[in-house]
Amino acid sequence: MTDHPPGGEPSELVELARRAATAYDRPDLEKRLGVVSRAVADDRARVLVVGEFKAGKTELVNAVIGGRALPTDAHRATTVPTMCAHGEQPAVVLVRGVEGGVEQQQISPTDLAEHVTERGNPDNRAGWSHAEATLPRPVLEGLRLVDTPGAGGLASPSAVSTMAELPGADAVLVVADGGRELTAPELALTRTAAAVSPTVAVVLTRIDLHPHWRRIADIDRGHLDRAGGERSDGTGGSSLRAVRIFPTSSALALHAAEDDDLPPDTARELAAESGIEEVRRLLVREVAEGRQARRIRMVADEVIVACEQFATAFRAERDALADPQRAQRIAAEVERSRAQAASLRDRAARWQQTLNDGVGDLVSDIEYDLRDRLRAVVADAEVALDDTDPAKTWEQFAPWLHQQVSAGVSTNVVWAEERTRWLAERVATHFAEDGAGVLPPVTVAASPDGTGLAADPVSMLAAPDHEKFGVSQSLMIGMRGSYGGVLMIGMLTTIAGMALLNPFSIGAGLLLGSKTLVDERKRALRRRQAEAKQAVRRHVDDVTFQAGKNSRDMLREVQRTLRDHFTTTAEELERSLAATADAARAVEADDAKRTARLADVEAELERVEHLADRARRLRGRAGSGSSRSSRLVGA
Amino acid sequence: MTAPDPSGLVGAARHVVDGALRLYGTGPADPATSWARSVLHDARARLDEPLRVALAGTLKAGKSTLLNALVGERIAATDAGECTRLVTWYRDAPSAAVVREDVDGRRATVPFARDGEGLRIDLGGIGDPGRVGRLLVDWPSRGLAQATLVDTPGLDSIRETNSRRTLSFVTPDDRPSGADAVVYLMRHAHRNDVGFLEAFADLAQGGAGGLGAVGASGTVVVLSRADEVGGGGLDAVTTAGQVAQSYREDPALRSLCQTVVAVDGLLAETARTLRQSEFTALRALARAPRAEVDALLLSADRFTVAEPPAVVAEALASDPDGVRLDEPARRALMERFGVFGIRSATTVLRRGARTGRGVVDSPSLAEELVRRSGLEELREALVSRVLGRRDVHQARSALLAVDLVLGRAPRPDAGPVAAELERLLSGAHAFTEQRLLAALRQGQVTMPEGTAAEAERLLGGDGPGAAERLGLAPGSAEVRAAALEALDRWRVRAESPLTSRAAAEVARAVVRSCEGVLGGYGS
């Protein structure tokens, strides 16, 4: 669909538009286009590979990239998320958050198992937030493939980091064993993924070992189709019908890729049977190119918007030059529009209200939701502590509490993300609706063919990329840095301080002894239970504080980003209209000069419109993702 | 049947239950009393029945398959999808019958048929399967003589009612557990598995705090589907054995079960029910050119395709036994053995044909495959840890029932029964051993590392037999000498003023265990 190299036509168009902006003395537009061109440069889709532990996630990643680049083991599981990206030289960098920044450590790719699996790094004691592997594999171009530690292993509370990774992913592959139908936890994971990511697929593994994988796939299809509509944890709800199932065998794919003695025909057959090709196609054709197409549409929109802004001024000037009597009237009308554009910048503008009120409401809603979830955990914990002797059960209790708290926090984060996205879209809608009347009617009326700005007036006002997950996703990615999750993982390490929480320093003597000491033991037991409950409450308070602060910070950041984005857009608009008014007023009295200027203006206009046309064609080739404009015009 | 009762515990427990029955047999028939009566009657009846062993685990862990392997017959139906949806009891009986018991307690005999895949049970026109409480299958089989096996629906199922049935059988709210012992199957030690094991262990704690986590002593964990570990290569079960070993040493699992063993349930089931036709089919396959057969076995799909490569087809066509390995036959083989099973079987058959020794006929193939499946280790563990301690497990179930009744339906005149219960729970050495074992495994007693491990072993942590306790080979002649030596050492430790109180209690118990070994040895 899109054969352009990353620096192809989109970059060229942005460059042309930037030069035009400089030539027409519009540094504001030039700056904005500069941001766009940088955003297009890093155009890789983030794909998460998630699932229960020991489901074959790492093996799947290896099969997709066509070689055993990541360490796999029959017993030891992955403990550190590993991001695979394309690069000329194989290299691995380990990353962890430290006080006031991040620490990076370069290691040899052959030592990876020592750092990212239970073999060398059980429980991820080294505290790495993730590893970044650069591999010379063409399939990785345009992708960042993240292999995550499985949910539910004995050693690590990884389910939480998996959940925290989900928002902002372009695609999520839920990996499940092809030998049995989806379990309740796997279905729940799929549902959460579908709520926050545009592309979700279930990948069944090890079909080489399971003769009945077709039936399992059918049964799973049924589970997914029926799963829509249930909304048990408040994070799902949309149907899972769109979630496709990919039966695969990593073993066959790797066998085909790595056994050089195989006849080419056999290798091809094995590769086809492995089903890995379909997964690759999904990632490359739909996910990576889908993302690229979205980006191209975004670039095209930006260029079109810039061109329209240039053209507006030229058209006004042309109309004024052609009919000097109308010049003043045109200028006055444009001036009115300018005042309207200026009011968009007002703090009292509707979109600003929506944004400020929305963020305020969200802060309190999200905090209430978090408190509510954690309160339930505390209540459960207290009941549990009432029934047992904490000194005996703490070892098992602490991880349980940890997991419950973490689950509560991550569900809250996912929910917050959804609500935030919804808010961002509402703000964009209000901005676009209020701005819809701004465009100077005169220019439209005066265009000879009546097309003028009518092409897509709203795109001028709209946010950069309005498709599902568009606006908020680009905002989020901006905040997360090159790799998602760092934000969350920083918080999770504070939760992990849990291990130090054991309030008991009781000699073993108290725990044994015969029943004659019942009274004394009962008193001691009650004291231990009280101490344990207090420890639980203290811990949950700490977590609530930290998580609450994180979500507030996140929302403030969103608020700032949205406000800056739309304020800048309003300013640009205002500036364009001011230039237009000036151009209309400055009509030369001298006929000869006027005719010469008219020819110049028409030539410039033609150039600008040619650029806009190219951008529109590029957009058309990148598919019609956005039905938003028409909806807004109709509204 | 008369149960062996070496410790006299069953007799003592029967006495306590009888006392409680006399107590609750009189007085008003209010709901609490009739509930107490029914719990006690059940407890009393259980003491005279074989041990009840439940097979539990997550979805598709292979519970029914393993049940068939243990019995040596295909009676529990198995399927690719979720199959067992009701708690089903399989017990030895003179003749076969299936009884459906509804949740309201009513029973009805239902028709059934048996095919190659197990029993097909007709629920008998009950509209709502939710009303069925359990199925009772009477089946004459030597494999069920020692223990009644209870097959349960998978935990973690998307169909939550199925999971609930299992939980309310193993850990009911208002009764003692339906099982005396649990064989817990899992694919890997998942956090949820640990959660279920904790629930099982906890229940046994059931108020009688003195008993500690006795439930762990009746739990054997099976790493099932060992054939799928590491891609189903020939060393899969060996690798799984290493995984099981590491789980045995894992602190999270150690305190929740007796031991962890790896089993390929499918291979075990098939090997124990091997047919002559399957043997000849596998032999024909082993005679065909190896490279082509290996290529065919790269995946289940390849093996079951309509047309195998010409070379294989030729070799099969010219097989001296005239075996026709057509598509349905290959499908059937795959169904019964799995990829790993066929790989293993052809490998041992090839070796047998080459050397003329070892696996050359159907019985020796069955024996070798059973050995490779890991079933023998599981049976040994079951016999030494669970069936061999039948007295302890049954007495515990009965005493917990009495404890529950005394706690929930208290009576002012319960004093003597409560005292006898208390005396038995805290006085019986078998229970002391279990309690201290649990304490040691949970790290509640501080002892030097080697010492703690020896204490665990002498208390029966590796098995209750004399040789196991002393770390000697079975049947060793040195048992008596070693026991005397250990007795002396631990007596010193028990009496040393430097030993902490808790450690001294352990040491005293170890001394008693040593005395028990010597006593048993003398007799």
Which descriptors apply to this entry?
heterodimer, A: 635 residues, alpha/beta, Rossmann fold, 2 domains, 19 helices, 61% helix, disordered N terminus, B: 523 residues, nine-stranded mixed beta sheet, two-stranded antiparallel sheet, 22 helices, 11% strand
What would a concise description of this structure say?
With 635 residues, chain A is an alpha/beta fold. Helix content of chain A is 61%, strand content 9%.
Radius of gyration of chain A: 29 Å
Mean of the pLDDT scores of chain B?
A: 83
The total beta strand count of chain B reads 11
Largest protein-protein interface: A-B, 54 and 65 residues
Strand order of the largest sheet of chain B: 4-3-7-2-8-1-9-10-11
Q: What oligomeric assembly is this protein in?
A: heterodimer
**Count of folded domains of chain A:** 2
The N- and C-terminal alpha carbons of chain A lie at a distance of 32 Å
CATH architectural name of the largest domain in chain B = 3-Layer(aba) Sandwich
Range of helix content of chain B: 40-55%
Low-confidence stretches of chain B: 203-214
Low-confidence stretches of chain A: 1-6, 154-160, 230-237, 439-518, 625-635
Structural class of chain A: alpha/beta
Strand content of chain A: 5-15%
Large-scale geometry of chain A = globular
Major sheet description of chain B: 9 strands, mixed
Write down the overall geometry of chain B: globular
Domain Dynamin N-terminal (chain A): 47-205
Region (Disordered) (chain A): 616-635
Coiled coil (chain A): 327-354
InterPro entries (chain A): Dynamin_N, P-loop_NTPase, TRAFAC_Dynamin-like_GTPase
Describe this structure in words.
The complex is a heterodimer of chains A (635) and B (523). Chain A is an alpha/beta fold and 635 residues long. Chain A has 2 domains: 9-40 and 289-634, no CATH class; 42-274, Rossmann fold. Chain A has 19 helices and 9 strands. Chain A has helices spanning 9-23, 27-41, 57-65, 112-116, 158-165, 184-196, 213-227, 250-258, 264-274, 276-322, 324-345, 350-387, 390-435, 441-446, 470-480, 486-496, 518-585, 591-621, 628-634; strands spanning 45-51, 82-86, 91-98, 101-107, 130-135, 143-147, 171-177, 199-205, 244-247. Chain A has a 9-stranded mixed β-sheet, with helices on both faces. In chain A, helix 1 (9-23) packs parallel to helix 10, helix 1 packs antiparallel against helix 18 and helix 10 (276-322) packs antiparallel against helix 18. The radius of gyration of chain A is 29 Å and the shape is globular. Chain B has 523 residues and is α/β, with parallel strands linked by helices. Chain B has 3 domains: 51-269 and 376-389, P-loop containing nucleotide triphosphate hydrolases (Rossmann fold), CATH 3.40.50.300; 273-371, no CATH class; 445-522, no CATH class. Helices cover 53% and strands 11% of the residues of chain B. Chain B contains 22 helices and 11 strands. Chain B has helices at residues 9-25, 31-47, 63-71, 160-170, 191-205, 236-248, 251-254, 265-272, 276-287, 290-296, 300-303, 310-317, 327-355, 362-373, 375-386, 390-408, 415-427, 429-441, 449-458, 466-470, 479-495, 501-522; strands at residues 51-57, 88-91, 97-102, 107-109, 112-115, 118-121, 132-138, 147-151, 181-186, 219-223, 259-262. In chain B, the strands form 2 sheets. Chain B has a 9-stranded mixed β-sheet, with helices on both faces. In chain B, helix 9 packs across helix 13 (327-355) and helix 21 runs antiparallel to helix 22 (501-522). Chain A: Residues 327-354 form a coiled coil. Chain A: It holds the Pfam family Dynamin_N. Chain A: InterPro entries: Dynamin_N, P-loop_NTPase, TRAFAC_Dynamin-like_GTPase.
